[in-house]
Write a structure and sequence with these properties.
Layout (H helix, E strand, L loop, with lengths): L20 E8 L3 H12 L4 E4 L15 E2 L6 H9 L1 H24 L7 E9 L3 H13 L5 E3 L10 E10 L2 H9 L3 E3 L6 E3 L2 E3 L4 E9 L17 E11 L7 E4 L6 E5 L2 E10 L8 H12 L4 E12 L6 E6 L2 E8 L5 H18 L5 H4 L10 H20 L13 E7 L2 E7 L5 E5 L10 E3 L4 E3 L6 E3 L4 E3 L8
Parallel strand pairs: 1-2, 1-10, 2-7, 4-12, 10-17
Antiparallel strand pairs: 3-6, 4-6, 5-6, 8-9, 9-10, 11-14, 11-15, 12-13, 13-14, 16-17, 18-19, 19-20, 21-22, 22-23, 23-24
Bound molecules: flavin-adenine dinucleotide and FE2/S2 (inorganic) cluster.
The site of flavin-adenine dinucleotide has 40 residues, from helix 1, strand 11, strand 15 and helix 7.
């Protein structure tokens, strides 16, 4: 199901690229990261062209909950414990600067996008001391944060940590308004990237600078992003007839939820799992049950889901793509905080292209990854991939075609081969390849979305086999 954002933002209609093109900067992907990068580059006098496989905003940006905040869960405690004070302070400063840049752009470009200043809160029902520590760290970064033991939430809390002057907005109204003055080609998928040449179905682009803002980089070598990121999926309900909340909330307990007012709706998100690991389903049902408990009589107006790339240390990969490709840049691994991360990425990459340096480059440097420092995380990702691959070769399907009830899918033996089969509500069967075209892992059925999801790096496909989410770049028909 589409998000609420698509109802109220005028769709952009841009032509596909039809011929060869030369430009200063080519940006792959028209989500928030790509459009903001094009915006800042244009401001600095650089000709930037956005190449978007579908429509701008049709990726995760169109399905976000769109909180613009530096309150990224318990990020300060995590960074302080694992990477030290300097990195923590730099990360906080970059996020704070990103919020102020949104304010500035909305004001100077006069963008009507429901931009609203709000308080962003972390809450816990269990251990208030964890929030008090996060508060102390925030204050050590110069960020005011207030701890309280009561909140406007419809259940008792043990603690709430409040950050004033954060914001929310309508992500697609903002994106499309900003895109108006930019050079964009839609329905233009980049099929291949070779140094300064990008290849599409109809034309080649030659660019001095290439920016991968396509959510998950689809080039496997160099960069090895597939070995040091995974994707996590979350589910969102748009609720009506709830008590009105003023603030935005994020629960730090294992059963915590995210809440955020949006006009007549209250958005509630949760049900997180690694993409490709939801065979049992029930994520929407869990959210619905909790919503009914918190807000008796609530109506569910809409439901949708989205996913984001997670790095081992919680910091996005923003900067130079790899040492061997000095004119390539990347913005990925936003860890479900891509509103501020997209702005930070756009400004950082613009600074690298225009000035050769950025004060935030060392913090987000994709090259901070070394086999020694990240050995544990890389080993875990590789183990996952090996499991997914070996499943494809050695796993014998547990289900048979006849045992699949209507409305269910599973990996079965079909005409002597392993296949993904979905039997729809009318009894018709839809057969796809069980192997992911990215690196060959076996796909898994996601009953909540009726999609085929890859447990290795999170590519997704609908039951007809069409590509939904990358890094895969083709379907599985
Ligand atoms: C449930 C959920 C809630 C969230 N809520 C928040 C929030 O409240 N606040 C926050 O800060 N963050 C939030 N996030 C994270 C945020 O939504 C994302 O980090 C952000 O939208 C990512 O933007 P992007 O531009 O990197 O990717 P996308 O928006 O996915 O854009 C990438 C684009 O690249 C295109 N593309 C891919 N491959 C190619 C190719 N080969 N050629 C051309 N184009 C290509 C795609 O079609 C797509 O349009 C949330 C995430 C989830 C999962
Ligand atoms: S997403 Fe990488 S193998 Fe499927």
């Amino acid at each position: 199901m589409e998000s609420i954002w698509t109802d109220s933002a005028v769709p952009s209609l841009r032509d596909p690229l039809q011929t060869d093109l030369r430009t200063d900067a080519a940006i792959i992907g028209g989500g928030l990261a790509g459009i903001l990068t094009a915006y800042w580059l244009k401001k600095r006098g650089i000709r930037a062209v956005v190449l978007e496989a579908r429509q701008i905003g049709s990726g995760q940006t169109g399905r976000t909950t769109a909180k613009i905040t530096l309150q990224h869960g318990l990020i300060l405690s995590r960074l302080s414990d694992n990477l030290g004070e300097k990195t923590m302070q730099g990360y906080a400063a970059a996020s704070e600067a990103a919020i102020r840049s949104y304010e500035q752009i909305v004001r100077t470009e006069n963008i009507d996008c429901d931009f609203t200043q709000r308080t962003a809160c972390l809450y816990t029902k269990q251990v208030p001391e964890i929030l008090q520590r996060e508060q102390a760290l925030a204050e050590s970064c110069g960020i005011p944060a207030e701890f309280r033991t009561q909140s406007e939430l419809p259940f008792p809390v043990a603690g709430v940590l409040r950050y004033e002057n954060q914001a929310s907005f309508h992500p697609l109204k903002f994106l499309r308004a900003l895109a108006d003055s930019l050079e964009i080609y839609e329905n233009t998928q980049i099929l291949q990237a070779e140094e300064d040449i990008l290849i599409t179905q109809r034309g080649k682009i030659q660019a001095k600078h290439v920016i991968f803002a396509c959510h998950y980089p689809f080039v496997n070598f160099p960069g090895l992003y597939f070995a040091r990121m995974h994707q996590e999926r979350s589910y969102v309900l748009a609720l009506e007839h709830t008590t009105a909340l003023q603030g935005m909330y994020y629960g730090i307990d294992p059963d915590g939820y995210s809440f955020r007012p949006a006009g007549r709706y209250l958005l509630m998100a949760g049900g997180n799992h690694r993409a490709g690991e939801n065979d049992a389903g029930g994520a929407y049902q869990e959210l619905r049950t909790a919503a009914q408990c918190f807000f008796p009589g609530v109506a569910i107006a809409r439901q949708w889901s989205a996913q984001d790339c997670m790095t081992p240390d919680g910091i996005p990969y923003i900067g130079r793509f790899a040492a061997s490709t000095p004119n390539w840049y990347v913005a990925t691994g936003f860890g479900k905080w891509g509103m501020t991360a997209s702005m930070a990425a756009a400004e950082l990459i613009t600074d690298l292209i225009c000035d050769g340096e950025s004060p935030y480059a060392p913090i987000f440097d994709p090259g901070r990854f070394t086999l020694t420092a990240s050995a544990h995380a890389v080993a875990a990702e590789m183990a996952h991939a090996v499991q997914g691959l070996s499943k494809g070769f050695f796993h014998i399907p547990q289900k048979t075609l006849d045992s699949l009830p209507m409305g269910h899918g599973g990996i079965v033996e079909f005409e002597g081969q392993k296949a993904g089969v979905y039997r729809d509500e009318q009894g018709e069967i839809h057969v796809v390849s069980a192997r992911c075209p990215h690196l060959g892992c076996e796909l898994a059925w996601n009953p909540d979305e009726k999609s085929w999801d890859c447990p290795c790096h999170g590519s997704r496909f609908d039951f007809y086999g069409n590509l939904l989410d990358n890094p895969a770049q083709t379907g599985i028909g």
